[in-house]
Amino acid sequence: AGIGKCVAMDLARRNARTILACRSRERGQAAVEEIRAATGNPAVVLRLLDTSSLASVRAFASAVLREEPRLDVLVNNAGVTGLPFAITSEGLEQTFTTNYLGPFLLTNLLLG
């Protein structure tokens, strides 16, 4: 939704292979179908990613590096605000992990 969906739509319009990294399979798949229909680009795919989980970040990065021949652009725009204080299963504060640690780790893992 929001900025991420707009960026993905623009990349797909430019005929780029576009990976939507989403927490929700249902919402993500709906966005994929909408972007494919609006742009005519069949190379829009969904991959599940929860940046509040470093295990999810590592699995996502590993899959991208294994499955994709190259990565030209990474747009880190997911984030949360206003959540009550919570600790993740990995012992980290949830908002900080979602907004900073997860995207930082993802970027560094994808740099190779």
TrEMBL record:
It holds the Pfam family adh_short. Keywords: Oxidoreductase. It comes from the Eukaryota. InterPro entries: NAD(P)-bd_dom_sf (IPR036291), SDR_fam (IPR002347). The keyword Cytoplasm does not apply. One of its GO terms (molecular function) is oxidoreductase activity. PANTHER family: PHOSPHATIDYLINOSITOL-GLYCAN BIOSYNTHESIS CLASS F PROTEIN-RELATED, RETINOL DEHYDROGENASE 11-LIKE. Belongs to the short-chain dehydrogenases/reductases (SDR) family. This is DHR13 reductase. It comes from Sylvia atricapilla. The gene is Dhrs13_0.
